[in-house]
# Entry
Amino acid sequence: MYCCDEKSLLAILGSLEAADVYATVRREKGPEYCNLRKTEGAELALRDPRPSASPKSFLQPARERVAAYDSKGVDEKASCPACGERALVGLRGCDLKAVEYLDKVFREGDFKDPFYEARRRAEILITVDCVAPHENCFCTALGGKPYAEAGFDLNVTPISGGYLLEVGSEKGQAILDKAGGRVREATPEQLKERERLRAKACQDLDRQNEGLRLPDKLQEILLGKQESDEWVKHASDCVECAACTFICPTCHCFYLYDQVLGPDEFERVRTWDSCLLGDYSRMAGPANAKPTPRPRLRTRFANRFLHKYAYSPQQYGLLGCTGCGRCIEACFGKVDIRQVLKELTGVKSR
# Structure
């Protein structure tokens, strides 16, 4: 374990061998990711609550070309993903859980996404402990922690007078090897401070969520309520804006469409899609030949919860929710996912 001061950390980030370094910085409306390579005087927001935007867009862009072609066939060069090395600084434990989930979706199984794979291989992941959890966060209710335990290249813990640095990979070790005199061995007192800060963050989350702990049989309970009228009550607040799914770090549905670029030039584009939208699951074919499988908002609303807490564990062995609370923050209908889960499962606050 190593430590450094604020100035040294900025210098270390500045010396990263990456084309772009995106870090959470302070802004008037709250922390947000910005490219340190193109921003002067940026103030890191590593001691602040997590940013409203999730890092999903770095790995799965909201819009991207996946193929270019003409009447002769596919232009392999124009369709090939080109990714320079990029560092993401300030990811939280919940964000890293989301990356683990997306890896299972796009990197495992029979079909692997070459675009996602290229970006993942080029990423340097630098996480940070949540010393000040956001008011909507509830990771501990799902068995998570407000800090990363594995999967990072380098983890940062804000402490008094600077930061602790923990290596998680060869990439991370290479960064510190290059840092030289900017870092030094952490003291036993600093390590104890980290443990105190982590324990306090867990206590703060427990307090703000009134001791919420979702039941071990969550999956079984929700599967048993697929046809329940209880969904009607909660779905009535949904305005179908899809903000919750677009801001979610694990939601990964996408839509493919082709468009004309010239007389004999075309491209296929992938964009985000949402299971809450009425025209979700649009399919090729004559109009109305293959209608949406979920014409009612109630079933679309229920599917979002069932997918995250029941189907995802069946398919990937992981919950499709990390407890980041971003959906609560983004929802125009003021739907609080914690409250919905409480009522559906019968969990009572202590």
